[in-house]
Amino acid sequence: MERISKLEEIIDYRFKDKKLIYQALSHSSYANEKKNPSGSNERLEFLGDSVLSIVVSDYLYKNLDVAEGELTKMRASLVCEKSLHVFAQQINLGEFLFLGKGEENTGGRERPSILADAFEALIAAIYLDGGIEPAAKHIMRFMPEDVHHPQKPAFSDFKTVLQEIVQKNPEEKVEYVLIGEEGPDHNKRFVVEVCLNSQVIGKGKGRSKKEAEQLAAKEALELMGYETQ
To answer: Could you say which of 95, 119, 201, 207 would form a disulfide bridge with 220 (CB–CB 3.0 to 4.6 Å)?
Structure first.
């Protein structure tokens, strides 16, 4: 209970139902060791993902006067695993998790996927305990003041990064389309477009299809505000 009380102080929210925050902090490895799989945070993570998406969508809609495609890309950058990992670190969430011995001994408290999932589970716990207003208040603590220019790190495997950004929203799909070939056979260039739900978000040209796909993903990331150099 001391661990839970400390986290409540950090997030500035007191749970009426302590079982909810306890469950949000319980990784499946811990729940399985306790022989209570239903007590893990996996179901809460599912709900938290949806609550996070609607709050962030509402925030972007009210603060950005841009087309739907741009809103989609910005939302994806804010709810991806990399962003949620950073948010979780800001409240030292890993310190409060209940992990099984295996996860504890292999660095589970610092693992990005575990922290990101627990962050979503915590959102759901707040939502179930107090409703959408306190959940939204908690989420808004982590939103950038200037949504037009979020600070992002540099990357090299652009396709992987782009995929990680959008995979949090199962309804969204990234697809690479070869739209043309240029030059003679000994010096051919391939032209590829990357699409998000059929909307073109980047274009690349390279000596191979793989290189063209990487450059298309790189352009898409740059349009989303990421530093790629």
So the answer is: 201
